Amino acid sequence: MKKLILTSFAFTGLTLTAWIIGATSCARNTYNVLIKNLNSYPVRYVEDNVSGFSTREVIQESDTISYHQLGINTQIETHKFLTGINQLHLGNQALAFKPGPPRYNFLEQIRSFHIYTLNDYNASYHAGDEISAICDFMDEDSRNWLDAAAYNTVLQSMNIAQEYFVPAVFCRLKQGPAVPGSQQQFITELTTTDGVIFRDTTYTFRIY
Amino acid sequence: MNIKNIICCLTLMGIAAPGINASAQKKKTTFRFFAEGAWQQQINGMDIQGAKRGLISLPAKSNLGLSLNATGEKNGFYLRFGLGILQQPSAFTVTDPEQHTVLYRSDFTNYYTTIKVGAGIIAKRWQNGSRLGLELNYTALSSNNNKTDVVLVKQGYMLSGQPAEDVRAYIDYDYGGTEPVDLGGILSLFSVTPVYQSRPLFGRSAIRVGLDISTKVGANRYGSTNAAQVAIFKGGGDRTIIAEEKYFDQHLTIGLLLGLTF
């Protein structure tokens, strides 16, 4: 019996040693991220020049809005794949000590963002034309409005290593439609550095 | 404690108990060296999250190992310590669930340095010097030859009349998983091994034959040495996931040990 106990103790000791070493490993959860799709919709954008606060209210389909207050919000939805989990290594069940913040590894980088009109907008922009040139885009970091070229430069400068990814693109129109109250619909297009193209179409609404 | 290790201990008690009284009454500690070769058959899909839906298929391969060991015995109880290498080939294939074609195939051979420590009892000893022992072993594995990769399988399609391409499959895999990034990179094998050692056949040298049943635990990802996760998208610009699967490969091997004492 003594030998059996000794054997069991030796084995259990080795097991516990490995278990404790596993427990002290506090790797945080890491995710690989791929773009899933775009979701574009119009919002009423109201900026308070005094306080600096702004509000964004989603416009319902067939609503009418002034182009001064119109914003097009494009949400970039993603797939997140868990690649590393913070847990003890014996048994795949228990969590280790307090995990750190999650880490995201973005597998795709954005090369450009464009916006097109589906209907005749004004004398310069007809159905199917790109209207990025008459849009201002918000740089969410600096809260400044940028033109299309400057904004695309910002998008291209994003670095995977910085664990930073733009969750949404927000733009507003600088010109109104030729026919006030006309029905309008827009297509947003995002291209990755690998040449993959994502598109989404807003629902129809009226602009004056 | 892990359920697998509890099972190992219980197995030891069940097998060894009848043979305890058969151990010889030796007082002196004896030391021996032996070389040991191992052949292990991988038994895959043991994990509950293993391959189930047929996206990932795993050929069960065989490991080969070689080690040099020292052992010391007293009163029918012995300890062993060994250094060795282990060759472990691994592979997997990802199949398109709709077209039933192979989207991706990968294989990799890993070489581990092994440190094995174990405790055993001699369950039976025969008059001619041969004996039957039962060992519980812990093996720490280390490799500098790991492989981790993320593969995006792309397929072409027509977008507004123009050729374009999109990601059809996301494949993320990890062979080895013992990078010394943190202490979690330790990989462990626990094994239960009945060993028969012959009487001295070549001078003092005897042959050892063992049945090795080992379970693998501990790595820096999911507690497995080889892991992959796959997501298949609808494709053609639609990133809707139509099938998803993860696998954690062999947690169990059964093998044959052949050794020579000197």
Task: Tell me about this structure.
Chain A has 208 residues and is of the alpha+beta class. Chain A has one domain. Chain A is elongated, with a radius of gyration of 26 Å. About 4% of the residues of chain A have low confidence. By secondary structure, chain B is mostly beta strands. Chain B has an 8-stranded antiparallel β-barrel. In chain B, a hairpin with a 5-residue loop joins strand 5 and strand 6. Chain B starts with a helix and ends with a strand. The N terminus of chain B is likely disordered. Classes of the chains: A alpha+beta (208), B mainly beta (262).
Offer a concise description of the structure.
The complex is a heterodimer of chains A (208) and B (262). Chain A is α+β, with helices and mostly antiparallel strands and 208 residues long. Helices cover 15% and strands 40% of the residues of chain A.
Characteristic terms for this protein:
heterodimer, A: 208 residues, alpha+beta, three-stranded mixed β-sheet, 2 helices, 13 strands, B: 262 residues, mainly beta, eight-stranded antiparallel barrel, 62% strand, disordered N terminus
Q: Could you outline the blueprint of secondary structure elements for this entry?
A:
The complex is a heterodimer of chains A (208) and B (262).
Chain A: H1 2-23, E1 30-47, E2 54-58, E3 64-65, E4 70-84, E5 103-106, E6 110-117, E7 135-139, E8 144-146, H2 148-157, E9 168-173, E10 182-184, E11 186-192, E12 197-201, E13 205-207
Parallel strand pairs in A: 1-5, 3-13
Antiparallel strand pairs in A: 1-2, 1-4, 4-9, 6-11, 7-8, 7-9, 10-13, 11-12
Chain B: H1 3-16, E1 30-43, E2 56-57, E3 62-74, E4 77-95, E5 102-125, E6 131-142, E7 147-159, E8 162-175, E9 187-197, E10 207-217, E11 227-235, E12 238-248, E13 252-261
